[in-house]
Amino acid sequence: MANLDVTLRYSGINFPGHLHSMQSMQFAEGFKFHDTDTLIVTYPKSGTTWMQEILTLIYSDGNQEPAKTIPNWIRTPWIEHYYCEDILLGKADHRIITTHLPYHILSKSLKQSNTKVIYVARNPMDIIVSFYHFHKMANFLPEPGTFGEFLEKFLLGKVHFGSWFEHIKDWLSHREEFNFFFITYEELKKDLTHSVEKLCNFLEHSLLPEVIDTIVRHCNFTNMKNNQMINYTLIPNEIMDHQRGKFMRKGAVGDWKEHFTDEQKQLFEKIFQDKMRDFKFRFIWTL
Ligand code: PPS
């Protein structure tokens, strides 16, 4: 299934047809979650892969074998991707599932269970930078144009996967409906040990301090960058052009400062204030 130039429009949002089909979206929307499932929810480029790796290691009690031998899209599949159905059919319990879907598509089925939901957020300015570079290498996403053009498209919510503003506002304003845990990329970066401890607490999966240390070491940026099972170098060049960029690019907080002009920063702030005006949630995006 290549479909590199195909866009799937579903429930008002564009998705890459390379990974999504009408059938796979309907499968996700009607999915029967189990109470033992753990669902990672993210807008793209917010720390999805990082959380996939952390949860893999928590549930394997620090055993690095699965993380070093099984690609992340098989051990922690995206529920909306076309290959997910086959993978999940074989697993009954303790599934780690990933999604970029907005609240309005997934909420009905998710509410039927007590699934543990982990929402990872990131400074949207760093998301824009990361997403922009990813568009250059991912041949299943449209050409991004200049950074300024991409920024405007993002702020209008016209990029693939829809509006970041709607994604985060909808999920967070309905968090009481779920067994919900919120964490940011910046918190992971600031204190990964404490973040893993908090995650273990939420997951009711206690681990010895030395196991947590192993997880923290395994999940640092350099180690993950070198792990073929999560750095996407297993994906052929025709789908991800590895000459045009790296999936594990910089792994930094505040890289937006290297990309935004003063005018672009002002434009971002104006739209952010406007869109988030009625949303009372205090984000901390700095370290
Ligand atoms: S995706 O395509 O939605 O699955 O992307 P996602 O995994 O959400 O985000 C990719 C960015 O996360 C960075 N990353 C990390 N940063 C720090 N430490 C670790 N361990 C780590 N793992 C992934 C990755 O480098 C991308 O960010 P940028 O800013 O592009 O480097």
Written account of the structure:
It is a single chain. The chain is α/β, with parallel strands linked by helices. The chain has a single domain (7-275), classed as Rossmann fold (3-Layer(aba) Sandwich), CATH 3.40.50. It has 14 helices and six strands. It binds 3'-phosphate-adenosine-5'-phosphate sulfate.
Overview features:
Rossmann fold, single chain, four-stranded parallel β-sheet, alpha/beta, 287 residues, two-stranded antiparallel ribbon, binds 3'-phosphate-adenosine-5'-phosphate sulfate
List the helices and strands and how they pair.
Elements: E1 7-10, E2 13-16, H1 22-29, E3 38-42, H2 48-59, H3 65-69, H4 72-75, H5 84-89, E4 96-99, H6 103-110, E5 116-121, H7 124-137, H8 147-155, H9 164-173, E6 179-184, H10 185-190, H11 192-203, H12 209-218, H13 221-225, H14 262-276
Helix pairs in contact: 11-12
The site of 3'-phosphate-adenosine-5'-phosphate sulfate (PPS) has 20 residues, from helix 2, helix 7 and helix 13.
* Major sheet attributes: 4 strands, parallel
Multimerization state: single chain
Highest-level CATH class:
Alpha Beta
Sum up the overall morphology in one term. Answer: globular
What percentage of amino acids are in beta strands?
5-15%
Short description:
This protein has one domain (7-275): Rossmann fold, CATH 3.40.50.300. It is 43% helix and 10% strand.
